[in-house]
Amino acid sequence: MKIVFPVEIFCGSDSVLFEHFGSSPFFALADTETGAIEQLTNPDQEHEHGACNPLRALGAASPDAIVVGGIGAGALNGLRNAGIRVFKSNARTIGEVLGNLEGSLLEILPTDVCGSAHSGGGCGCSCH
User: Residue 60's domain spans which residues?
Assistant: First the structure.
């Protein structure tokens, strides 16, 4: 399985998860079969608020899933429409997530995104 994680500073499995998908400067692409983790730059980082293009942000990466701290509705819908599942994790690092994949992830639904009425306008993160 290939999983993308938004990160501010790339440090392999020690990379700390960035709080919000769209404004993340980098992504880490982890392959759970090979154990490889590579850095990806987010070319869509400077988008207007609410106008994230998640497929542009991911470039040529074709992940099976994304693990985030928070995400906006537009990005979530774009990823879901592309067949990419999006999960929330409260883990601090990529290594913590990968070490407990079965028990640490909850799939994000449209009602769980940053700014939704259901979440009180927030998402438990510092949305940018």
Answer: 2-112
- For residue 120, being part of any structural domain is answered with no
Residue 124 or 32, more confident? 32
Is 128 inside any structural domain? no
- CATH number, domain with residue 84: 3.30.420.130
Output the DSSP codes for the chain.
-EEEEEESS-BTBTPBBPS-STT-SEEEEEETTT--EEEEE-TTTTPPTT---HHHHHTT---SEEEES--BHHHHHHHHHTT-EEEE---SBHHHHHHTHHHH-EEPPGGGSBT-TTTTT--SS---
Q: What is the pLDDT of residues 55-89, one digit of tens each?
A: 777 877 889 999 998 888 888 988 999 999 999 98
- Give residue 115's pLDDT: 54
Q: What is the pTM of this model?
A: 0.81
Q: Report the number of distinct structural domains present in the chain.
A: 1
